[in-house]
TrEMBL record:
PANTHER family: MANGANESE-DEPENDENT ADP-RIBOSE_CDP-ALCOHOL DIPHOSPHATASE (PTHR16509:SF1), PTHR16509. One of its GO terms (molecular function) is CDP-glycerol diphosphatase activity. Signal peptide: none annotated. This is Calcineurin-like phosphoesterase domain-containing protein. It comes from Hemiselmis andersenii.
Length: 112
């Protein structure tokens, strides 16, 4: 395997466990999947994209730390190829964005 790209929604959106406490928590579910991904022999590091299901369970900062990939990044695994990772949830109702982010976005739109 040359490279693994995890496209987001790595866990279920509602991983709080079930009513009798026997279901997996979000942390347990994430660790179970990451444990499997670590077993894949790849010449490049795994590129993780953040989906809405992750954001229902973790903060963006916690995900970036756990997954080892910033929300915005460029990966060049081989010559001639570039993977550009964008965060489609930068401005969303799932988690509030820092105030300066919205201000910058509105300023950009007003200038155009």
């Amino acid at each position: 395997v040359s490279m693994v790209v995890q496209l987001g929604d790595i866990i279920d959106g509602k991983c709080a466990g079930d009513k009798d406490g026997k279901g997996r928590t979000a942390e347990e579910a994430l660790e179970a999947v990451l444990g499997r991904l670590r077993k894949i022999k790849s010449s490049k590091k795994t590129l993780h994209l953040i989906g809405n299901h992750e954001l229902y369970n973790f903060t963006r900062e916690a995900l970036e730390e756990r997954l080892g990939c910033p929300a915005f990044s460029v990966h060049r695994p081989v010559p001639g190829w570039a993977f550009i990772s964008l965060d489609p949830y930068d401005l969303s109702t799932i988690q509030p964005a820092p105030p300066h982010t919205a201000e910058e976005a509105f300023k950009y739109l007003e200038e155009r």
